[in-house]
User: Fold these one by one.
Assistant:
Number 1:
Amino acid sequence: MERNRTKKGELSRIRLLEAATQQFALNGYFTTKISDIVKAAGLTQAAFYLYFPSKDAIFSELVNEYRMRLKVLANAGSLVTPLPSSDVPEQVKENLKNLFLFLNASPELTKIALYDSPDSEQIKKEMMDMIIHNLRSNQEAGHVRKDLPIEVAAECMVAMLERMVTKIVNEETNPVSLANDITDVILYGILSHRKDDDHARDCM
C-alpha cells in the first residue's frame, strides 16, 4: 500500500511539472497562477503544496533541471579526445544534431529556460563558456586554427544557435537538416575554395 501511495505521489508531481511547463510557456511566468497549473494537471492546490512551496519553486526546478541536462549534453559532445582531422566534421555535425534534437524534444521548456527565465542570460553565458572551452581544447589538438579569436567565435556561435532555437521551438525547420547546414557554415564559412581545399587534402 505504501508503495502504491509513493508511486501515485510521483505521478502527481510529474503531472504538476508537465502542466507548469505548458502554462509557463503559454502565458509566461508572471501571468501564470498556481490555480492554472493545478487545473491543467487535474489536481488540487493542496496537492500542489505537497510538492512545491511556491510558483517560484516549481519554475526554478524546471529551469535548473534543464540547465543540468544541457550541461550533460555539452560534456558528452566535447571533442577533448583527439580525432583524425577527417572525422571532426562528422563529430561536429553529430554534436549539433544531438543538441537540436534535445531542444526540439521539449520546445516549451526550451522557451522557458532560454527566453522567459530570469536566468536566461546566465544560461546563454554558460553555453558560451562551454563553447569556448571546447574550441580551446580543439585548438590545442590542432583541429581549430591557431589564430582564431575564440571569444568572438563563441559569441557568433551562441547568437547563431539562439536564432536557430527560435526556428526549432516554432517547428519551422528540421533539427537534423539544420545541424547539417550549420556544420557546413561553421567549418567552411562562405568562401567557395575552403571546402574544396579540405576535401582535396583528405583525399591525399
Number 2:
Amino acid sequence: MATITRYAYERITAGEMMPGVIEVSTDARIGQVIDDILLLIDCCFDGELAGQIYYLPF
C-alpha cells in the first residue's frame, strides 16, 4: 500500500480529519486520469471528498 494511502487510512480509523486522497495508478493513461479527476470534481460538493480515498482510473 502506498505511503500516503496508508496514513490516510490510519487517520480515518482514528477519527482524525483527512481532506481526501486521490491515488493514481502508475500505469494509468494520463488522459483518462484527467477525465476521471474532472468527473469527480464536477460530481462532488465542497468538502464532500473529506475522509475519502479514491483510486483512479475508475
